[in-house]
Predict the structure.
Amino acid sequence: MSTQLAGPRRPVRRRFCSNQTRYSFVVEPCPERRSFADPDNELPTRDTGLPELPEIEVLRRSLAPRLLGRTIERIEVLNPSLREPVDGEALSAAATGNRIVGLGRRAKFLLIDLDSPHSLVIHLGMSGRLTLVQDDEPRERHEHLALHLDSGHRLRFRDPRRFGLVLALPTEGILDDRHFNRLGPEPLTNDLDGDLLERAAARRKGPVKGFLLDPRVIAGVGNIYACEALHRAGIHPARSVARIAARRWQRLAEEVRATLEEAIADGGTTLNDFVDGEGKSGYFQVSLAVYGHEGEECARCGRTIRRIVQSGRSTFYCPGCQR
């Protein structure tokens, strides 16, 4: 059997909508509320949709109206086993008794600013879920920790696969921390343009899809949205970055941003069980043009969508539209 084959595809339908938003490292309140979703990094042995940048931005928006101004009364660590072991004492010292004054995002990290010198940093990893529930709601299986609030709610973090991350960091200079200091620019800002991509690709020869997934080039673009942006831009995912002209870099930068903005407007992509802070699923999966559509006709040209594996991740593309 060919090693190019991956797991079963998921049938989805197509729909498109757009929304113009602009976010980078934000800490101000955001009153908008959206529903939410699930996608990102895949294990080499299976396809699975995991949280990417749009999902974290939607999560931020859904939680902001209900968290801002609330006081964290206590932090309960039920299972410290995550990608980095949870330091319950450090979290409690940084957060207990302090008020939440901002929700931010950097790449795929959610940042909870407090009226103290510290911020809480949360990364959902591969299977994390962050939801706000009543304090007396029964604990979920794989619930690792909970922030108990003065509103009578708790913000619970569950992570069956334990690749998530929860820690406290000093707010001042937080972007210089090792978790952030090598990240590239935010793709939803004006920093992302064709010139930036062309400069970053200089002296490289690898495939463009892997280039887009490099967080040192662009922060937070994951597998699903890289596939979709390349299809929209008409660029084959295996094309060498050394063989892309300036005008095509500009088109790709525009499509990366547009794809992410539309996904945020649609509440993200729910492929498995990912939801926003209120437990609502996203629906951008109905807009996916190539991801998960192996063997189906391309809506643009009618050719059959193909799937290959690049660096252990499924890549979906149209051989007719993408060159």
Notes: The longest helix spans residues 246-265.
